[in-house]
Amino acid sequence: MLSSYATALSNAVPTGYNITQISNGTTTVSGATTAATLAAFTSQNPTVGATSTLNTYTVTLTAVSQTATYTYGYTSTALNTPVIPAILTSTGTTGGSVTTPTGYNTSPQIPSGYYISAIYAGTSASGTLISSSTTNGTNAAWPSGQVYAPTGNQYYNSIGT
Fold first, then answer.
1. 108-133 as b/e: b if 16+ CB within 10 A
2. Average pLDDT of the residues in 20-33
3. What is the pTM of this model?
4. Is 20 in a helix, a strand, or coil?
5. Which of 7, 8, 47, 150 is buried most, with the most CB atoms less than 10 Å from its CB?
């Protein structure tokens, strides 16, 4: 019967989160992942108590660490371009605000004479446009409200002249 509870709990956990603690006020078990926490819970051989207090459990969810990747490429109109800038990353947790890496939009990451003309969600300029420069020569602004998702934390910075 416990295995069906473990399955039901596992299936109820939103993508990007782990069950990291289960407690009934008397006994508390913890784990770094949902599987580890449920294994610790079932190893305690929990039983239905005579009072309803012991049958009430608190399940703690913790956001999983996520990494955002920032890639770069030049617009098709940029000629004789320097080497494509290095890929950068930033980390956070599911649902947390994406914070760009230091210098993602400045020299030396962006070569002198170039600017970020557009930012796309995805790995290329065919992704979803999330910001574009309104003034030639001025970087596209990082859009507010970007959060770390359970998957797909990739941003493509299109560089123009």
1. ebbbeebbbbbbbbeeebebebbbeb
2. 92
3. 0.84
4. strand
5. 150
